[in-house]
Amino acid sequence: MSADKPLPAHKGQSGESVRxxxxxxxxxxxxxQGTILRSKITATTGLNRSTVxxxxxxxxxxxxxxxxxxxxxxxxxxxxxxxxxxxNIVAFSVNPEIDATTVAAVAxxxxxxxxxxxxxxxxxxAQDSIAVSAEMIDSMRKQLEPGTxxxxxxxxxxxxxxxSDGVIRFAPQLGWVEQAFAAxxxxxxxxPVYLANDASLGCxxxxxxxxxxxxxxxxxxxxxxxxxxxxxxxxxRNITGAAGYAGELGHIRISSSKQLDYSGFSGTLxxxxxxxxxxxxxxxYVATDEExxxxxxxxxxxxARKLLEQQVSSLADGISTLVNIFNPEVVVLGGFLTSLFxxxxxxxxxxxxxxxxxxxxxxxxxxxxxxxxxxLVLGAAELPFEALLEAPSSFRLTDA
Amino acid sequence: MSADKPLPAHKGQSGESVRxxxxxxxxxxxxxQGTILRSKITATTGLNRSTVxxxxxxxxxxxxxxxxxxxxxxxxxxxxxxxxxxxNIVAFSVNPEIDATTVAAVAxxxxxxxxxxxxxxxxxxAQDSIAVSAEMIDSMRKQLEPGTxxxxxxxxxxxxxxxSDGVIRFAPQLGWVEQAFAAxxxxxxxxPVYLANDASLGCxxxxxxxxxxxxxxxxxxxxxxxxxxxxxxxxxRNITGAAGYAGELGHIRISSSKQLDYSGFSGTLxxxxxxxxxxxxxxxYVATDEExxxxxxxxxxxxARKLLEQQVSSLADGISTLVNIFNPEVVVLGGFLTSLFxxxxxxxxxxxxxxxxxxxxxxxxxxxxxxxxxxLVLGAAELPFEALLEAPSSFRLTDA
DNA sequence: ATCTATTTGTTGTTTTAAACAACAAGTATC
DNA sequence: GATACTTGTTGTTTAAAACAACAAATAGAT
Lengths: 400, 400
Description:
The structure is a homodimer of 400-residue chains. The first copy, chain A, has 400 residues and is of the alpha+beta class.
């Protein structure tokens, strides 16, 4: 009945855990803000000058942070030192898609060190994908600067991932079911591997570095050829749910329509806002988001415009529901949803407000994603980085 | 661009804040678990025996906790002391409804010290309600045991409340708009007053003391005569949103039906699962939840059973959407939704699973609320208690 | 060019609170 | 009644943040 397991919520704090927390706080600040003055760290953390000095020294010792003298002094008084995240600590990010696999190396400083997209035959098995990923990581690893250290691998998966053990439960586009992706890729590379849903990672990336930076409550909707994915930041934290499947915002039911989405549910947001329907009406077979966007911007076809208006309406319905549920400050759109937004921003906003409570919707801002093609690259890299940020002094880095 | 305000997320921890945190942790543990052995506190917090001894001593000194020798020893070894929350520290909870106002005094120990429900003429103004509440609190205050100290007042509001200043933005049933309830009631009583949405507070109560105790991810749906309200616990925390309006789960759109809910939105969960529709079909004008439940259990009418099945379907649709969004462990139902559940549990569960992702729904349990008529009494009291739990050593208690 | 005010880094000391260690107290089992 | 076991108590140690004093580096004033 009562909790025999020591819930983390009821954990006390000892002296050492305070040190861990403070190291973590400083490192996270630098990772998120980029290069930052030490005096600024002192101000934002509220810690004493000498304490910050000591913390930064320890992190520098570990090779995680770097201190440099500021090139141009900023004002009166002794110039403060600039603190940056190490440029030679990298995470690999992997994004398997239906027709290609993207692998990148991202430095803790945020720099994308290298990035490669390899086309694959359609419908690769998970084993194929793991083999290709491992090989790409291996070759990329050899080209890293000497002395570079590796945090691990983050994989963005277009499907549902069990967070506890990194098993892909179901990836509809790829046709994968119950694949122990993390364990297998970890075996092949000798590196720790972390998995999460792609849209959730996009959400994390936009909230840390993009359109929702410094926002505590945000909702994300990303649409691609595989449907609509989503993510939520509430009170500054990504909502994951009990097992990691939360945030499937494409599958919220908003209508009685019998139209099906890619997972076979009817009347959902994903069923009514379909990229393929737009491609069809423009008589396109495949198209990049840019090409589709150009068509949407320029079309004069009444039929096309009507479909677009319907999709905008459905999107507004979906956003209304999410606003009522989450009361976010910002709603961030990605993929071709940005084109829908641009097509009829006033309609979208008006219909969204009409379907949502005034109090919850009055301050909501709808915004386009800011990270473009680096969205998932940065998002996936945050998974291993998060592990490092959580325990900077005890995390085991791997030599390149 | 970058954060000039020191975000709490980037706050460091000093020695003193550790003490605060640990005092808070111990006190919260006792408040949530009820009477608990000191050895158990040591085990769950992970703190040293002597540290726990010291922390409990400080809280006892403050009169917040009480240590007693255990009546019946539990096993081998020196018997541990039983730690309880003080029974003479109380919070008032207030619940204004359309036809009555309920005021109660709740002890930190969880005991409901007193409770009174006063009938009022229909459609009271906010001023009426504040005056009546203040008067009820005053008279109840006089009857408290000597030496009792007061934490504050928590108000559960059937409407949207801005959390920053306790202004009621809109309470559709009561017809209130923009009422500075907290400020006004605080003026009248001389006590700190906290406000929140009623369903959110019910959610907090069930998650701390009721059907979702020790559950980190739970969704709550409560239905009454005023519609359907909701609340969410994600990662152990109640979701409030940017301004406090999150959790309006009754207003999620699940259908294209033109049926309107109490806030004028069409096709929402609240529009399709209406208590009044059930009352109508049973030819009841007013009825308690118990009376309605009896009708639902015993009805043989085909028309009634069809309506009930429709409502169960709609409820299942709503829960599916919420399961896809939140991946909860438990969904808790309250009000007449429990009767719907009892009417057709298999249908509800089957249809819910049909509309939700397998991964997210496979482990979900649908459960009835456990707190009955004390739901809002306990929930509202948690608001002032929370302030005390947050800062036990510096919180200013008021003498009765 | 020099002086002053200002800000920040550095170093050595103090303080706080948790951990630790040793012992006493109380219970159950043999 | 002896022994093992668990918990409370007390005094000591330790870790880390705060503090204080001073040095360093800048901008602006004289």
